[in-house]
Amino acid sequence: MGSLSVRLASLRSTLATKLPPRVLLPTLSKCYSSMVLDQKKQLTVLMGVLKEHLAHMDKDQLSFHQSELTSFFLTALDFRSRDSRGDLEKTSEIEGHVINCLVTMVMKLSEVTFRPLFFKLFDWSKSDSTERLLTFYRLSDALAERLKGLFVLFAGNLIKPFSELLQKIHSSKTNEQMFDSDGGEQKSVMLLHYILDCLHKIFLYDTQHFMSKERADALLSPLVDQVENTLGGGQVYRQRVTQHLVPCVGQFAVALADNTLWKILNYQILLKTRHSDAQVRFSSLLMLMELASKLKENYMVLLPETIPFLAELMEDECEEVEQQVQKVIQEMENILGEPLQSFF
Questions:
Q1: pTM of the full predicted structure?
Q2: Pick from 242, 167, 247: which is nearest to 199 by CA?
Q3: Which sign does the torsion angle of CA 39, 41, 45, 50 carry?
Q4: Predicted confidence band of residue 258 (pLDDT cuts 50, 70, 90)
Q5: Could you tell me the maximum CA-CA distance found in the chain, to the nearest angstrom?
Q6: In sequence order, what are the residues at sequence separation of 6 or more whose Cβ sits closer than 8 angstroms to the Cβ of residue 5?
Q7: Three-class SS string for 62-101?
Q8: Which residues have C-beta within 8 Å of that of residue 240, sequence separation ≥ 6?
Q9: With bands split at pLDDT 50, 70 and 90, how would you rate the model's confidence at 128?
């Protein structure tokens, strides 16, 4: 069996690298159309062949075949919305392969050829089915990871939709489900992760002072408000806060690079420490600690405002919150290099 799979792998590789695009691409496209109906499991193999083929193509071949490839990807990226009732994990896996393929192609494009493609995909995501939003923001997150600072050049148009979606996918702001199919809540949680992660990368790779006052204003409240978004329940909420939300807000602060905006951000987080739900108060403290650790000595100017809130939380009825306050104070003392006792 081993030798057969080796021979098959070698055959796939030969197909991908030896056949010219004019022969291979139409065939792959045909295969996709029939496999998507009754052989979904085999699609990952098909995408593997295409990925290797794309990696092997030179710039001229790519630009010659780009419109053909674009229409293929627009079809293949619709896999999730056509399969919206299917098994979420399987769907995500196949979609992941399609996205990897597309990213392989994008890495070979110039900024000039990528721009129209990106906006075509952006328009595509806004029509037809909400499932497309999941696919598009997952793709954006993958592109941001690979393109780094280059992606930031295209991200301006995403700020408004990011801001709107963060407000829309919020347990306490709306009762209506974003996705009407099975696993709707799970899909909303996934979409939130992709948005927070993509934003995190935009803030991380921003060297051009991308975060203008206007963009900062559009994102600041929707981001901080996510600390109250308990969508998905206890464990899912905690994981989202620690792995996605807190890192994103910390990096947001760095990208703001502005005293006035830091003050607003810090104060909005402080207000959340008075929330009626103990887990929200706890999460707000995690966010505060991240802010201090990212701003370092710049956090000094925000201390006078912060201390009264921390003092209040030292008396919190929830033991976890009380312990966390002690941690925050200790962490702030480490960062600022001086004891805070005198402030209380």
A1: 0.95
A2: 247
A3: positive
A4: very high
A5: 76
A6: none
A7: HHHHHHHHHHHHHHHCCHHHHCCCCCHHHHHHHHHHHHHH
A8: 189, 192, 193, 196, 232
A9: confident
Assigned token pair, 25:
């691409």
Tally Cβ neighbours within 10 Å of residue 96.
Answer: 14
Distance CA 281, CA 316 (A): 10
CA 184 to chain centre: 18
Q: Which residues contact 194 (CB under 8 A, 6 or more apart)?
A: 134, 137, 138, 140, 141
Residue at 3: amino acid letter? S
The residue type at 68: E
179, 231 Cβ separation under 8 angstroms: no
Query: What is the predicted pLDDT for the residue at 85?
Result: 82
Q: What is the DSSP letter of 245?
A: I
- The pair of structure tokens assigned to 303 is 């201390």
Q: What amino acid occupies position 332?
A: M
Residue 81 burial class via C-beta count within 10 angstroms: exposed 0-12, middle 13-18, buried 19 and up:
middle
Fill in the amino acid letter for 7.
R
Nearest to 303 by CA among 247, 246, 342, 276: 342
Residue whose pair of structure tokens reads 């103990």 in the numeric block: 278
217 vs 153: CA distance, rounded Å: 19
**pLDDT value at residue 168:** 93
Torsion of CA 176, 180, 186, 190, to 10 degrees: -90
Token pair, residue 190, equals: 């996934």
CA distance 84 to 99: 17
- CA atoms of 191 and 251, how far apart (whole Å): 19
Q: Is the pLDDT of residue 173 over 80?
A: no
The residues spanned by each domain of the chain are: 11-109, 258-343
Spatial CA neighbour of 45 closest among 28, 60, 58, 33: 28
Rounded to whole angstroms, the Cα distance separating 40 from 336 reads: 56
